[in-house]
Amino acid sequence: MTEWDVKKLSILRTLRDHGTVTATAEALLMTPSAVSQQLTNLARQLGVELLEPQGRRVRLTDAAHLVLRHAEAVFAQLERADAELTGYLRGEAGEVRVGAFSTAVPALVVPAVRLLRAEERPGPDVRVREAEAAQAYELLTAGEVDLALSLAAHAPTARDPRFSLFPLLADPLDVALPAAHPLADAPALRLADLAADRWIFGGSGPWSEITTAACEAAGFVPEQAHSAAGWTAILALVEAGMGIALVPRMASREQRREGVVMRVLEADQPRRHVVAAVRHGAESGPAVARVLGALTRVAESFS
User: Fold this and answer.
1) Based on the number of CB atoms within 10 Å of its own CB, is 294 exposed (0-12), middle (13-18) or buried (19 or more)?
2) Among 21, 119, 224, 240, which residue's CB has the most CB atoms within a 10 Å radius?
3) How many Cβ atoms from other residues are within 10 Å of residue 75's Cβ?
4) Do residues 243 and 198 make contact, with C-beta atoms less than 8 angstroms apart?
5) 16-68 residue pLDDT tens
6) Does residue 48 sit in helix, strand or coil?
7) CA 179, 102, 29 angle in degrees (round to 5)?
8) Nearest residue to 39 via CA among 65, 1, 13, 70
9) What's the burial of 111, exposed, middle or buried (CB within 10 Å: 0-12/13-18/19+)?
10) What is the pTM of this model?
């Protein structure tokens, strides 16, 4: 029978995800020569070529991709076994490391923890790590978090065997206007009505993309007056009458300023979709399942 070495298979999967031996070595805290040696040994054990040269790099052979397709089922089963063993040894409390983007921490994670603490039975020990939405899947892959909150725009396809995805909510984007703005009290405000305004959003990254995409869908390209990424800075600029901004409702609940009017857009209201993700198989663990359930209940309160 062919010998399947889980540790070496994990190295092969990391090479697939990171693209180079050097990047794989850095991710696994190994030397490049040790990575190459482990993969050479795995190829010998399996009796197939796993790598082939591609310029100065290497690429996975068809045989390597075949091996990994089967290995993903093994990794998922090991995640389920690890989750069940943790539940057995530590009860349903356990520990769940949650990675979440900034607005999701106060809007979703903290209320979910409060729900768990209010239950009669002990809740999981939730450890929070703030991370950019695009970083969530890197942290999951590296095993640095057990559950990640991200945006659907950054999610892998549903066919990715490494993750299980759980849609949480469609977060509406409202527009923040200075209190003295001519349209602050206008009825039935649409995004297109604000085409001539000066806008505030980040110079790059997901929020810049979300803002420009929403405005372009409404028929115009927004004129960027100022570049800011944090909601405190953005709303301070709006309050000062220096521009307007799209703000997720999750963020506006936590950030309120007297000189800013939050207006719900009619008809063409954009939304961002928030998802939770775990490594495939880990969702069956009692602690992770309870945290997912609490996050879902909190998300439903936004509807």
Assistant:
1) buried
2) 21
3) 19
4) yes
5) 999 999 999 999 999 999 999 999 999 999 999 999 988 888 999 999 999 99
6) coil
7) 155
8) 13
9) middle
10) 0.70
